[in-house]
Write a structure and sequence with these properties.
globular, homodimer, 8-stranded mixed sheet, D-amino Acid Aminotransferase, Chain A, domain 1, 665 residues, 18% strand, 4 domains, alpha/beta
């Protein structure tokens, strides 16, 4: 039975979820059988030495007389609380209490013990460190330190960083979720639980939300235009896309529940309905989604809010004592930044400036910029965006109170910003003084076969240096203003040039940045230092990192793209075949969620080994999604990076993982 | 003047065309002036010691009395043939003849000499190795060896491999082309000259061709569905796409003239017209294109056919003596393969099986396969394709007469094979017993954001192992049949698994291949050896090449994709910004045309250094487009590869470049 269950699909999913390699074997212990079902002086039970739900220090468990283990587990008979065993088998109970203490003493951890009483004699069948909720894990860790059974370092190592997620997000009511059967499963892309009425457009999400309704936004995939709708929803469900698709990344940034890439959904966006698990859902139907497990449920499942105890703060305080890696956050808005700082972020590792362009007033100017006929027209349009962008940066600098803010210059291909609705196109044509056909032809000319490897990143700044100049002005002016307002802060703007693959690209764009920045600083007659660095997200950047490092103040590893290019694997398309890869045991984990140390990690190592000798002062961090994944954080510690940066709600996970890595040493 | 012209845009284009780095400087010689315009006892002229057009050994040149150099070049006065100088300045002429012999003797090459006569005294202003046509280059090289002035090796080094192209393809009539002004310029994607009437669809190209008309196929971009139309056309002109776009690659394979990526064309495919250089062309209008220079001309420019002299064979014979690298070809059809063998190919390095699926009968079965609901249905559809594919392979083995044939298994994403026309969709729906809406939904579900990094290559074989099984059967059965028919040949099929990035992918697909192949061989009771290897085209494959090599009989570097992934640069989208990159001197050459040794080459080097120790018997080659580029061939020689593989018409170039690399040592 053990060997048969060893390799079943459920076991493999469990392994993947828990970072257990397929190659590990199993052992089987063969023991003499004892019988709990030989009469009324027999029995069997299971007990935890502390409460696995809350961590409270008291024996918890269940017990049945004249029964075997299956009877307790199967729920056919209702077991009695463990305390009643004191009446039935006083001697065995007394001995059991002693054994519990001995075992806890030995393992220095809460034990999950199975036992049988045969003719009043106690037999211990098995003990193991008990599974526990995140809340209990913190309580037990803090108590064990207080009891002198664990050091702070040992206590830190006890906690699985991935469990912290559940402390920070709403969860389904435990009983309700046990009773529910999922309709289907996507990827648990952003943790938490959500329940609401299905809507199919960002506009509807906004409208229903304003009308006081809770909604789940269901989309084939999300695009930057959906952001306000995503904010308005309780959760997001997408048919396409992986763990680092647009929906997943943005939702994690917002701390919003998201299930992505549920390919089993037959979607009919036009008619606002979809089919899953044999049931068709129309607008307004209730669904519930779990962004941790990826399960999708029919109807209403009640959720309970997150509750952060004092233990959380205690343990986070310990992690800060022991970790070497700094932890920054990926945040584009002051509210995200504030949330992240609350959770312990020591700076912004990645501010994506493009998200700022989608608000109504700005998108118009941005589109004017895209469709400008000349450099002058483009500069005129950029001039309209400049004050907005400067204002955004000022608010970020305010929120960070002098902590570092690393601002990435415009990255996505321009076609992400063009209108798709007929009305918007007609409006744009009017503004631009062009015909609708001309605008459509221009939009078509922006089409790309492989946008991920197209006209984006620093390639935009090479073709349109005026964009980089505008963004530099916004950064430097904002920094000057906030530095003036807070002379005690030390603001050193970090400007990050994305998608560099050849040092001459960096030099070219850096020249624009430095000339613009120096002119701004001179005009303001202030003394402001700033840094210009680059994302390392193209394999060739790793291969030529010596040349690049000599021209960069910092490297920030963009491991999302580095994974895409390194594997030749589009994260938005991978969901279609990843399951086949898991089934065939080709991949043991999603390389977008957990860093592939063997391949992508080797590129990073190469970049560090080439880069550091070329520039001894270079500062290195990671701003890909991997910055919030515990095993990847450990790897970054080993690589000798200076910091990791992750979405706000993952900051505690990164702090804990960084401390664990330092303690493991 | 020298310094001013040094950095002008024309100079930079010249450098890029001739592989001269921007970083090289220029020197200026300052000399005393002599005057050829001080009277009738003065003059000036230019002469070649051999005919630069044919290579014939006789003095060629022009001469003017009482004139300066500009007068000869500018064409204001008509110069006299050099021979007449014998009458005007007998002493100077005699001396000049002697100087010519001395200079040729010294440089061991044909000289281009500028001279002035001042008061009857001869001054030599400048001498240099003269520019020459490809035909002349061969003639001079062969003559110099016959004269004992050069060794065969030295003669080989004299010839620029890139010039051989002009020997193998039709060219414009020299006088006509001098008189013509180009309307615009795209990329010279496949050499040769072509003239014909513009058509806008593959169907029209076929129909007009059958009606006896010569046509140029003008497309936004080509797709695999256009192949028969491309064959029927004299040349292909595309608006989008780079040097390794579909049109470029296929045209080069066919030896067909192609100008790609002419972004200046305003295309209106629907109405079958386009505008370029201020002129609108409709269906049937004559245009002329030059696939070597990329120029596009209005109207009819006569072409002259290629003429291959005996010198070509002589020199190719020499190259085979000295080169170490084998030269194979990329060919999918027997006619391409025969052409390549004629030009010296020693095997097929890359047979792309997908091109075989587009013929009418097969595409239907292939689409059935794509839209099959079950493995059984898919297998039934594949069963229909099997005999066709087997027949194709048999013809290839016949054409190769026992030389190696490396067959790559299905590579492109499936959406490349789905119908786009309403009628075809309706037909498919009928065949599949589905509604048009269902078929459309299925087609939509195949859409990918970044198809280059999507569900393709070995990923198809992982999700649909039955495709790999069918292709294995076709290869093995074909090999068995042809081996039986020709017992003196030694047929060893080479099966190539594309897009491997992780050894477990290769192992998984290889298991299907080996099991199928062994079963076929056992069933036929024959003794057939075969090899299973992989394309190395994903950066991660290079990074983990030790693991992969231990499971592969050969590596074939797919440097097109390796360049795309290494640079994070989509070849189909790069044309939009490459010009800006050249102008800013960020790129010195198109990395898809010429291998980037610093980055992509480093990945190759890593793969070789990791792979060879892991498998001492491993065979390594290159099958990317770079296999036909001289500087890349030299690099492959240095890397220690066993062979290069290139499109048929580039085989002579590769042979020459391989010999040059070996001679340079």
């Amino acid at each position: 039975a053990v060997f048969r269950s060893w390799d079943n699909p459920r076991a493999n999913v469990y392994r993947r979820d828990n970072d257990i390699p397929y190659s590990w074997g199993t052992a089987v212990n063969v023991q003499a059988m004892v019988f709990g079902n030989m009469g009324e002086d027999c029995g069997t039970g299971v007990a935890f030495t502390r409460d696995p739900a809350t961590g409270e220090k008291k024996l918890m468990g269940e017990f049945l007389t004249n029964a075997q283990g299956e009877d307790v587990v199967a729920g056919v008979r209702t077991p009695m609380p463990i305390a009643e065993m004191a009446d039935k088998f006083p001697a065995a109970y007394k001995q059991f209490i002693e054994v519990c203490a001995t075992l806890e003493d030995h393992y220095h951890d809460m034990q999950d013990i199975e036992f049988t009483v045969e003719n009043e004699k106690l037999y211990i069948l098995q003990t193991r460190n008990g599974k526990r909720t995140a809340q209990a894990a913190l309580q037990i860790a803090v108590d064990l330190v207080a009891e002198g059974r664990k050091t702070e370092q040992e206590a830190i190592l006890m906690i699985d960083p991935r469990n912290l997620d559940t402390l920070l997000h709403p969860q389904f009511d435990v009983k309700a979720i046990k009773a529910a059967t999922p309709l289907g499963r996507g990827l648990g892309a952003s943790p938490g639980a959500a329940c609401g009425q299905a809507v199919f457009t960002a506009e509807d999400a906004n409208a229903w939300n304003e009308a006081g309704k809770k909604v789940i936004l269901v989309r084939l995939e999300t695009s930057p235009e959906d952001i306000t709708g995503m904010k308005a929803a309780q959760g997001i469900l997408t048919v396409r896309g992986g763990m680092t698709s647009h929906a997943a990344v943005v939702a994690r940034g917002m701390g919003k529940c998201c299930v992505s890439g549920c390919g089993d959904i037959a979607m009919d966006e036009e008619n606002k309905k979809f089919t899953l698990g044999g049931k068709t859902f129309v607008e307004g139907d209730f669904i519930s989604i779990d962004g941790s497990t990826g399960y999708i449920y029919d109807g209403i499942i009640p959720t309970v809010d997150a509750e952060i105890s004092g233990n959380f703060g205690t343990i986070m305080g310990w992690t800060d004592k022991y970790r070497r890696l700094k932890v920054r956050t990926n945040a584009d808005t002051p509210s995200d930044a504030l949330k992240a700082r609350e959770l312990g972020a020591e700076g912004i590792g990645l501010c994506r400036t493009e998200h700022m362009f989608f608000e109504a007033e700005r998108i118009a100017a941005f589109r004017e910029m895209i469709f400008a006929d000349s450099v002058e027209d483009r500069e005129a349009a950029l001039e309209k965006i400049l004050p907005h962008q400067q204002g955004d940066f000022e608010k970020l600098y305010e929120a960070l109170e002098g902590n570092p803010v690393c601002i990435r210059f415009l990255d996505p291909p321009l076609h992400e910003f063009v209108p798709t609705e007929e009305a918007d196109i007609a409006h744009l044509a009017k503004v631009q003084g062009k015909s609708v056909e001309e605008i459509k032809a221009l939009i078509a000319s922006l089409h790309e076969f492989n946008p991920m490897m197209g006209h984006r990143g620093c390639r935009l700044a090479v073709t349109y240096p005026e964009i980089a100049a505008m963004q530099t002005k916004a950064v430097i002016r904002a920094a000057i203003n906030i530095q003036k307002a807070h002379p005690d802060w030390n603001i050193v703007p970090e400007i990050m040039i994305p998608l560099v693959g050849e040092v001459k690209e960096l030099k070219y764009v850096k020249k624009v940045v430095v000339e613009t920045a120096d002119a701004e600083i001179a005009a303001a007659s202030v003394n402001l230092k700033y840094k210009v660095g680059t994302m390392i997200e193209i394999p060739r950047a790793c291969l030529t990192a010596d040349e690049i490092a000599a021209n960069a103040d910092f490297f920030s590893f963009g491991t999302n793209d580095l994974t895409q290019m390194g594997f030749g694997l589009s994260r938005d398309d991978a969901a279609k075949f990843l399951d086949a890869y898991y089934d065939a045991k080709i991949y043991e984990f999603d390389p977008f969620a957990r860093l592939d140390q063997k391949g992508v990690g080797k590129l990073m190592k190469m970049a560090i080994e080439l880069g550091k000798p070329a520039n001894k002062d270079i500062h290195m961090g990671i701003c890909g999604e991997h910055g919030g994944d515990p095993s990847s954080v450990e790897f970054c510690h080993e690589l000798g990076l200076d910091y990791v940066s992750c979405s706000p709600f993952r900051v505690p996970i990164a702090r804990l993982a960084a401390a664990q890595a330092a303690i493991k040493g």
